[in-house]
């Protein structure tokens, strides 16, 4: 868009029209200003729409690539769970993800087809498609190798590195897609801002010329100027931004309907009113500082982001842009633009929260694995360490799988019990969970992990030393509600080796059961009674799931 400086200066226009009678002079000047404003808007709006469309397509490209990567990760997670456990149930995430991969790839192909032939995203998107195909083949071949030739063959396939290399290419390509999209979107935003500011300043300048000419013209010229001003007002009121012109005393000269609606007075005309008396109180300090800053730097664009009064129910955010235009022998004129950026800031805040939550969960998982490894190593060495550590990691994976299916919000108590005791509840297992009628308590993610650890360790000890270590031994589990909503879960072993006395040494399993419900985030307690005919344990806690 050509800047306003490309148009004839006001003094040149006046000299060219000196021989024209005052009435025709006013008409021509008003018509020229209106035509220039219309041309600026007509030239700028389609370009802004084009930039906005391109930005939306770039966001669609990144979202489609992210969706494909997430689905591919789900498939890889299902494959790894199956290779670790050998149980077909762990293939469910892979099967579901594989069913979603075909439409996900098709979506990326559709985005690829819409991109320009010489665009930078085409080779990146093609790389995602090719690497995804290689990864799917690797997943399928590894699973088939496990089924047909056993774990060693599957491990050999994994160690070959083909799947990891393909996955790394997908991740790298998705990251490049984000980078290209972000850079292009930033350029589109900058171009749109320049068009909006330059066009708004040009339109405002021409409208000022038309307004001044109408005031000084004859009666016929004033009537023509009034008609032109009415047309210009219609253009202003249809603009998607709040647009206003103010004098150096921060009094409104003119404002469109959008800005009046932002101020909370959609039917009012702010002309002649001080800005502090018209705009919302929460925006006044920031707007005053912005406009005074623009007066100190004539011709330069200044901007800031302002927030409404959240306590009064106004949670909107605004991008405010201002510029002071100084003309010869006249006071400067302030041009103010307000754009609603509430959704953009909310999206940025949600993204920051998601990134923080992901980092927090990853740190928690790493800390948990480190704790399990160190405690297991302290109690078990050699091959026994590998078996025990692997069992505890698989228990952790099962609990995380349950929470992942519930979007890490909460999980029902009965599902947690089933997942934690899955390895001991197969055909001929000695664990019996009493059925329960009524509402099932919901546990928070932290409680899910704590209860999973506790039950896993109880079952492991029962299989090594207690009721599950001999034929005919049984474990019964039931629970009931207590006063205040607390849950009492009982673990009773019968038919195992006699217990002559309570153990004098506390291993990691005993320590874990004893501390799983005594942290600040999971108030509760664990009571163990070593009866001669079997261990009895009661776990009491207050569910705090959603």
- How many distinct domains? 3
**Beta strand %:** 5-15%
Shape: elongated
SSE series: HHHHHHHEEHHHEEEHHEHEEHEEHEE
Please describe the biggest sheet, giving its number of strands, its sense, and whether it closes into a barrel. Answer: 5 strands, antiparallel
Average pLDDT figure: 75
Number of discrete helical segments: 15
Q: Kindly report the spatial arrangement of strands forming the biggest sheet.
A: 2-1-5-4-3
Q: Any idea what the radius of gyration is?
A: 35 Å
Structure class = alpha+beta
Low-confidence stretches: 1-10, 16-20, 357-361
| Count of strand segments | 12
Helix content: 55-70%
Terminal residue distance: 54 Å
Blueprint (SSEs and pairs):
Blueprint: H1 10-16, H2 22-85, H3 92-114, H4 121-149, H5 151-159, H6 162-216, H7 219-238, E1 242-246, E2 252-255, H8 257-262, H9 275-278, H10 284-296, E3 302-307, E4 317-325, E5 333-340, H11 342-379, H12 383-405, E6 411-412, H13 413-420, E7 431-433, E8 442-443, H14 445-464, E9 474-481, E10 487-494, H15 508-515, E11 524-531, E12 534-541
Parallel strand pairs: 7-9
Antiparallel strand pairs: 1-2, 1-5, 3-4, 4-5, 6-8, 9-10, 10-12, 11-12
Structure description:
This protein is α+β, with helices and mostly antiparallel strands and 546 residues long. It folds into three domains: 1-238, no CATH class; 240-340, 2-Layer Sandwich (Beta-Lactamase), CATH 3.30.450.20; 372-541, Heat Shock Protein 90. It is 60% helix and 13% strand. The chain has helices at 10-16, 22-85, 92-114, 121-149, 151-159, 162-216, 219-238, 257-262, 275-278, 284-296, 342-379, 383-405, 413-420, 445-464, 508-515, and strands spanning 242-246, 252-255, 302-307, 317-325, 333-340, 411-412, 431-433, 442-443, 474-481, 487-494, 524-531, 534-541. The strands form three sheets. Strands 2-1-5-4-3 form a five-stranded antiparallel β-sheet, sandwiched between helices. Strands 7-9-10-12-11 form a five-stranded mixed β-sheet, covered by helices on one side. Strand 1 (242-246) and strand 2 (252-255) form a beta hairpin. Helix 4 (121-149) packs antiparallel against helix 6 and helix 12 (383-405) runs antiparallel to helix 14 (445-464). The protein is elongated. Mean pLDDT is 75; it is low at 1-10, 16-20 and 357-361.
């Amino acid at each position: 868009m050509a800047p306003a400086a490309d148009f004839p200066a006001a003094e040149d226009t006046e000299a060219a029209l000196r021989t024209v009678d005052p009435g025709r002079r006013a008409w021509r000047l008003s018509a020229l200003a209106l035509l220039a404003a219309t041309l600026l808007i007509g030239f700028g709006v389609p370009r802004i729409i084009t930039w906005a469309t391109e930005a939306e397509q770039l966001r669609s490209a990144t979202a489609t690539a992210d969706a494909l990567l997430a689905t591919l990760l789900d498939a890889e997670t299902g494959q790894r769970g199956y290779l670790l456990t050998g149980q077909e149930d762990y293939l469910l995430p892979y099967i579901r993800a594989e069913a979603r991969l075909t439409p996900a790839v098709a979506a990326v192909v559709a985005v690829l087809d819409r991109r320009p032939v010489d665009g930078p995203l085409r080779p990146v998107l093609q790389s995602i498609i090719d690497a995804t195909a290689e990864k799917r083949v690797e997943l399928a071949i590894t699973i088939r190798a496990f089924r047909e030739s056993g774990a060693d063959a599957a491990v050999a396939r994994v160690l070959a590195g083909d799947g990891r290399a393909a996955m790394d290419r997908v991740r790298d390509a998705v990251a490049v897609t984000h980078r290209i999209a972000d850079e292009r979107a930033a350029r589109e935003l900058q171009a749109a801002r320049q068009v909006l500011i330059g066009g708004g300043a040009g339109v405002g300048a021409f409208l000022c010329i038309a307004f001044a000419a109408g005031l000084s013209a004859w009666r016929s010229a004033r009537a023509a100027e009034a008609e032109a001003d009415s047309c210009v007002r219609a253009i202003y009121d249809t603009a998607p931004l709040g647009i206003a012109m103010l004098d150096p005393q921060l009094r409104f000269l003119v404002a469109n309907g959008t800005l009046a609606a932002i101020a909370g007075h959609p039917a009012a005309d702010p002309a002649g009113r001080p800005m502090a008396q018209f705009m919302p109180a929460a925006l006044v300090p920031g707007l005053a500082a912005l406009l005074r800053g623009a007066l100190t730097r004539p011709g330069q664009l200044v901007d800031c982001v302002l927030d409404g009064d959240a306590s009064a129910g106004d949670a909107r955010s605004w991008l405010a842009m201002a510029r002071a235009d100084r003309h010869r022998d006249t006071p400067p004129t302030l041009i103010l633009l307000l754009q609603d950026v509430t959704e953009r800031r909310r999206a940025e805040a949600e993204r920051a929260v998601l990134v923080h939550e992901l980092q927090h969960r990853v740190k928690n998982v790493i800390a948990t694995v480190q704790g399990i490894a160190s405690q297991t190593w302290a109690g078990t060495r050699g091959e026994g360490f590998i078996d025990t550590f692997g069992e505890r990691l698989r228990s952790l994976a099962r609990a995380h799988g349950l929470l992942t299916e519930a979007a890490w919000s909460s999980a029902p108590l009965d599902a947690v019990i089933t997942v934690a005791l899955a390895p001991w509840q197969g055909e001929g297992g000695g664990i019996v969970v009493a059925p329960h009628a009524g509402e099932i308590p919901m546990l928070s993610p932290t409680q899910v992990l704590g209860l999973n650890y506790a039950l896993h360790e109880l079952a492991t000890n029962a299989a090594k030393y207690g009721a599950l270590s001999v034929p005919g031994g049984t474990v019964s589990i039931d629970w009931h509600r207590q006063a205040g909503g607390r849950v009492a879960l009982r673990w009773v072993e019968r038919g195992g080796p006699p217990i002559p006395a309570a153990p004098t040494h506390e291993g990691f399993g005993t320590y874990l059961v004893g501390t799983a419900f005594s942290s600040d985030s999971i108030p509760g307690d664990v009571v163990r009674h070593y009866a001669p005919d079997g261990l009895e344990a009661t776990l009491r806690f207050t569910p705090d799931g959603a």
